[in-house]
Amino acid sequence: MLNLSSKARFQSRSIGVFSIACVMSLMVAMPVAAADTNTLGFVVRDWFTSVFNSKFLDECPEGLTMANDEIWWRGLSKEERATVTENGLIQSLARQFITPRRGPNGEHVCHDPTSVIDPPMKVVEGKYSYGANLDGDTDGSPTPKTCSHGNFTHPDDGTPGIDNQMYRLLGCIYGWRRGGLPEANAHEGRGTSGLGMILIEVSGITDPRNSDDVIVTFYRSIDQFALDGSGRPLPYSSYNIDMKDGKPRYNDSLKGAIKDGVLTTARGDVRLPFYGNYNFMHPIIRDMGLKLEIAPDGATANGMITGYYNMDEFLYYNGGMTGHVSGGDNCPSMYVAAHELADGYPDPDTGQCTHLSSAFEIGTYAAFVIHPDEKKKITKR
Q: Is 98 within a domain?
C-alpha cells in the first residue's frame, strides 16, 4: 500500500492545485462538490526524486560519496594540481570539460564508465525510506520479476517492505539529497522551457471526493505554463495535448478510484515525457502507481509516483553536466553500484536486473486538458 509522507515534507516545494475540468463550453471551473462533474485535470509542475534525509546523516554512516572532481584532483601531484587549476582559481564548474577525461586514453568516464575503476560508491545503509511495496513481499527475496534486494520501512507510519533502490543509490550523494542542484536545475528548466510537461486527466468521476471506478490518463502538454505575477502557474489554465498523426503521442492509462479525496491507481506500465538537465527522455515506468491526496477544499493536491525506473535511462540522464559536475557523484562508481542495486525486471539472458524501484514526489496545478475535438468546439463558439 503506497503511503504519502506528511504534508510538512512538501511545504518547501511548490504544492500543486487540483481542478474540476468540466463545463468546457464555459471554460469556468466548477466547485469541487458539483454534482455533474465527470473529469478532473492536472498539470504536473513539481517532480522530485523522493529521498529520506535524517538530521545527522544516519543513513550514510560512512559519510557522503566522493565526487568525480575530487577523484580527479586527488590523482594529481600538488604541482600538477596548482598548474591546471591556476592555484585553485579555476573552480570545479569551469573544470567540467577536463575532470571527466580520466580514462587511460583520455576517455570521458561518464560516456565510458567502464574505462576506469573508481572507489566504491557509498550507498544508503539506513532503515527508512519513502515509497511503496512494489513486489508484495517484505523481505526482499527474488521473484520472477525482481532480484534480491534490501527493503525499507516507511518513516511516517512504519509500513514494512518499502522498495526504493533508487534512493539507496542516490541518498549518500551530496547533490542528490533534498534540495540538491541536479533536481533544482531540472525543476527550473521545466518551468521556464515548458518541455516534458505531464498532463493527468481523470475521467469517469461521479463524485469528486468519492468515485469507485475512474480512468487516469497521462499526456504531454505542448503549451508552456501559464504564470501569475509571482511566477507560479495559474490554476485552471488550458493545455493542449501533444498529438502525432492524429493521435496523442502519450496516452497510457491506469484504472483508479477516489476515496475521501485520495486518488489511488492500479499499477501498470506508463510512458511519460521527461525533461531535465538538458536531456529529454521518454521513460516507461513499469508497475507505475499514482497516489494524490486532495485537500478538502479541492484547491491543492500532492502525491507520489512509484514504480520501476529503467536503470540505463537514469544513468544516461545522470551522465550529463549537472549530474557529474554539480551532483557530487562520479559516473564509474555509480554505474557499478546501480547494477548491484537494480532490483526490477531481470534480463532473460543474463539475469541482471534492469530497473530500479523508485519513488517521485509530484505537485500539480489545476488544468483544463484540451483535446483537438474540444478545441474545435470552443473555436466555433
A: no
Closest CA to 329 of 107, 124, 129, 122: 122
**C-alpha span between 364 and 28 (Å, rounded):** 18
CA 65, 70, 71: angle at the middle one, nearest 5? 85
Outline where the chain has alpha helix (H). 68-74, 78-84, 165-170, 181-193, 311-318, 321, 331-341, 372-380
CB atoms closer than 10 angstroms to residue 141: 12
Give domain status of residue 316, yes or no: yes
For the purposes of burial, counting CB atoms within 10 Å of the CB of 371, is it exposed (0-12), middle (13-18) or buried (19 or more)?
A: middle
Q: What is the pTM of this model?
A: 0.87
Q: Which residue has the cell 546501480?
A: 338
How many domains would you assign to the chain?
1
| CB atoms near residue 86 (< 10 Å) | 9
User: Which residues of 89-220 form beta strands (DSSP E)?
Assistant: 198-203, 211-220
H-helix or E-strand containing 344? strand 344-346
What would the grid cell of residue 134 be?
512494489
Amino acid of residue 339: H
Residue appearing with cell numbers 481523470 = 202
As to burial, measured by CB atoms within 10 angstroms (0-12 exposed, 13-18 middle, 19+ buried), residue 218 is buried
Residue 256: inside a domain: yes
> Domain limits at 217?
7-27+36-66+119-135+144-380
The SS3 of residue 160 is: coil
Tell whether 312 is covered by a domain.
Answer: yes
Per-residue confidence in pLDDT tens, the chain, 381 aa: 444 444 434 333 333 333 333 333 333 333 333 334 589 999 999 999 999 999 999 999 999 999 999 999 999 999 999 999 999 899 888 888 889 999 999 999 999 999 999 999 999 999 999 999 999 999 999 999 999 999 999 999 999 999 999 999 999 999 899 988 889 989 999 999 989 999 999 999 999 999 999 999 999 999 999 998 888 888 889 999 999 999 999 999 999 999 999 999 999 999 999 998 888 899 999 999 999 988 777 777 899 999 999 999 999 888 754 455 557 888 999 999 999 999 999 999 999 999 999 999 999 988 999 999 765 555 555
